[in-house]
Amino acid sequence: MKIVAVEPIGISEKRGEEIRKLLFQKGHDFVLFHDRVEDAALLIERMQDAEMVIVSNIPLTSQILTKCPKLRFLNVAFTGLDHIDLEYCKKHNIQIRNASGYATEAVSELAVALALDVYRKITILDSEIRKSGVRGTFLGTELKGKTIGIIGTGAIGVRTAQLFNVFGCNVVGWSRSQKQEFINLGFKYLDLDELLKVSDILSLHVPLTDDTYHLIDKEKIKLCKKSAIIINTARGNVVDIEALAEALNLRNIAGAGIDVYEKEPPIPENHPLAKAQNCVLVPHVGYATREAFDNRIDIILNNIDLFE
User: Fold this and answer.
1) What is the DSSP letter of 78?
2) 299, 295, 305, 307: which is closest to 106 by C-alpha?
3) CA separation for the pair 230, 111 (Å, rounded)
4) What angle separates helix 104-120 from helix 290-307, to the nearest 10 degrees?
5) Facing residues of 170 across strands?
6) Contact at 8 Å (CB) between 148 and 167?
7) How far apart are CA 112 and CA 17, in angstroms?
8) DSSP 8-state secondary structure symbol assigned to residue 154
9) How far apart are CA 53 and CA 75, in angstroms?
10) pLDDT digits 0-9 by tens, 248-300
């Protein structure tokens, strides 16, 4: 079987050669590209003869997939699948496996880090000290005692809840389906509107679906405390970005920490959040740790064995 990794997904040249030899022993031809491209023509060139494609979050539309007649399996080195034309894959019997769980710890830790940054204004103060600034009248805010609203209690949501709990936070949750693990940890489920009203920090961990598109919109933001902050490490379109920016600038909420956007970064200079008040932005790095990438490679290799 010809297996093509259309991007490096954290695989070094040395590790790539080790994987190539391993897969060759199993009867596979493995091709690894060491750069990331999103140009449709280049992707088609790389994928057109492949039976299995390894890809992370590069969009794969039907226009690309239709040019890959031999494709039988998409080995997705990512958790979400909203960048892939799933209907096309279903219609053409292309199997898909993701790398669920590879970045649970990484994303959860970033959610807490963003909350700490917003509360303690680390990014802002770093800029100030580099300009010979001082503390002045600045006062930060502590996590201890705050109510954390976890929206989406899958693996990442549960782990994020555990981490916030270590800081002495009161954790509540909302999810489309309640998880016994979350309850067993001593956390309580609320309906979404109630959760929005009581939470000091909202941490989003739901996938992007038709039901969760703009789940947090202008009306939902109005339910939040003015002292609340929103942390989004899930998907950009789970939040109405325009409504969030407006609420920040009008000080109807106190802050935000954002790792995900409507499209993959770079974001335009005039993006609504680029100039929003008390908003920490990072370029979709929640999953990007050495440990997570190593986990991901192991899962991808296991997916190959499962497909066989």
Assistant:
1) S
2) 295
3) 10
4) 150
5) 147
6) no
7) 37
8) S
9) 6
10) 999 999 999 999 999 999 999 999 999 999 999 999 999 999 999 999 999 99
2-100+289-307 maps to CATH 2.40.160.40? no
Q: What percent of the chain has pLDDT over 70?
A: 100
CB of 283 closer than 8 Å to CB of 265: yes
Task: Find where tokens 């916030």 sit.
Answer: 164
- Which CATH number describes the domain made up of 104-281? 3.40.50.720
Site of tokens 């060759």: 24
CATH topology identical between 2-100+289-307 and 104-281: yes
User: 109 by DSSP, 3-state: which?
Assistant: helix
The enclosing H or E element of 219 equals helix 218-222
The DSSP result for 249-308, as a single string, is HTTSS-EEEE---SSSSPPPTT-TTTT-TTEEE--S-TT--HHHHHHHHHHHHHHHHHH-
User: How far apart are the C-alpha atoms of 15 and 233, rounded to whole Å?
Assistant: 29
Contacts of 42 (CB under 8 A, 6+ apart): none
Question: Which residues carry out catalysis?
Answer: 235, 264, 284
pTM of the shown model: 0.89
